[in-house]
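Q: Structure for this?
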Amino acid sequence: MAMNNIFSALCAILGDAGRWLRGRAAALLSFAAADHPYVYLSGSALSLAAALTYIFSQRYGFFLSRPLWVWTALALCGAFCLASLAALASKLRLKRRYRAGSRFCAPAARRAARYGSYVIWTVAALTLADRLHVLYQVVREVMAMDTNPSPFFQAMVYMFYNSRALFLRGLWTTLRLAFFGTIFGFLLAVGLVFLRIQTPSKRDWDHVKLIKILCSRFAALYATVVRGTPMMLQAFIIYYAGFGLFKGHTDLTITEINTIWSFFIAGLTTVSLNSAAYLSEVLRGGVESIDAGQTEAARSLGMSSWMTMMKVVFPQALKNSIPAIGNEMIINIKDSSVLNCIGVVELMYAATSVAGIYYKNLPNYVSAAIIYLIMTCCISAILNKLSARLSLNTYRGVPSSN
Amino acid sequence: MEPILSIQGLEKSFGPLKVLKGIDLDVQKGEVVCIIGASGSGKSTLLRCLNLLEEPDSGHIWFGGQDLTDLDADLDGLRQRIGMVFQGFNLFNNKNVLDNCTLAPISVKHIPRAQAEETAIHHLRTVGLGEFIHADSRRLSGGQKQRVAIARALCMEPEIMLFDEPTSALDPEIVGEVLDVMKTLAREGMTMVVVTHEMAFAKEVSDRVVFMDQGVILEQGTPAEVFGSPREARTREFLSRYLEDKGI
């Protein structure tokens, strides 16, 4: 009983302490968040970064002396830190009257801070320009070398420059795989989705009902199988199955088969068949997202189900699916990398080959990663532009008089 | 006179729920029939059965000498002759106003585009939308959308028009503009079957009022009979509650 009382008293005290602490923390936070020129601090951080860049870098500027630059940046950093501290002191002194009463909140102080920020920006921009110049110099030097340098960045540039033909061939193959793979995949997906959405109705003849059910089941099964197995495995199966077909049913020699059923063709087939499964699901979602009312309206006007699909539902579904189709293209750029397993000379294969030539792995894989990133960013920027334009056109129909 | 539309013993269930329990109804040419009744009484289902948007379980629907429920009936051909207007407008979102109206005449009846557009513009003017011919159909107000939907149905030159609560999704303020179009249609002699909650409209325009309750037609007659001296207690109850709610 006594223990119980002590325990509950303890709990009460702890609870009170917790509430008090929480209250203090909240008050402190709101004090810190209240109007304060934090831009001073960010300005000092930026100039500190500029200074550190010069203190720690091996090579430095072509247009300024290093100590002068470092001291300028540090001085700016110090000035902004001091201003920030002074503002804090003023805030602590004035508390709630800070905003109305402090000189740091006066328009003159704000203007001074703005001009100070221009100085900071100049310093940062000059530093960046200088770094880019150094980068350019390094790259030029590396390109002139005839042995592989040991520093990471230099080695990366050296190997990329000296195997650029292979890298570019890989890049070009990757782009072709992604582009044509998505297009063929899309065409197949359109076919698949038409099979998929077949639903037997009471009015169909029995054999039509059967065919519709079989078509729909086939499309569903296809999507399940393809989406449920790894693409690398699909690539192996498609390549060897195709090879086996040619070998078993024709009199071609292995060299001839390799020309017809090349790694690239097998890879493209893999990407296309793979994308078809994913895109058919995307399109099916698009078709299902169009409200049934529009279908009913079209049917009530005497349009057949096929015509309703072609003229009303599918155009809208397609338009809604465009972002997802673009996304599939970006995925294909990245996922086509698994095709190096069947020997398609795409970017991943190129990077691995170069790594094998120089016995250096990491720099080449980082190069490949950078190229993939550039490709995906460019494609997604283009796609964003495209879809923005498309949706603009959608809303162009402002009511107008005839 | 041979009725244009004749319904015999129509039954329809959704799973275990029996929505229509044997409906018999004849509609004469040029007649305006309003179907009233509480929500869930089966009026919309009945209307949707009339052009086979819902497949009835049993019974017959005779239209122009053909049985729609016959499994070998040319459904698309018959539907061309039956116009329908929906509660939710159901305009084609990928088409502008004019294309909404010309799509079916051009693709189904193979009318030349110029002629189809001429007809469409005529009907759009009739419903008061002459200025919105090239407007994006998504940008219209509800009342305008519904009037486009009516014009779209008229462009097929139907012999009968079905209206499925055409004003239920509209603001009270713009219900009038749709009802006015419907009144004009009725005056011009269009055969109409209207499911509605607008009792004033039913009273004013219809030749016959049909009261449905729990899947059967409980009572039908002229507006004066049904509204003035309903025979069934359920009809009286419905009407009095309805008029009370409406504050009329």
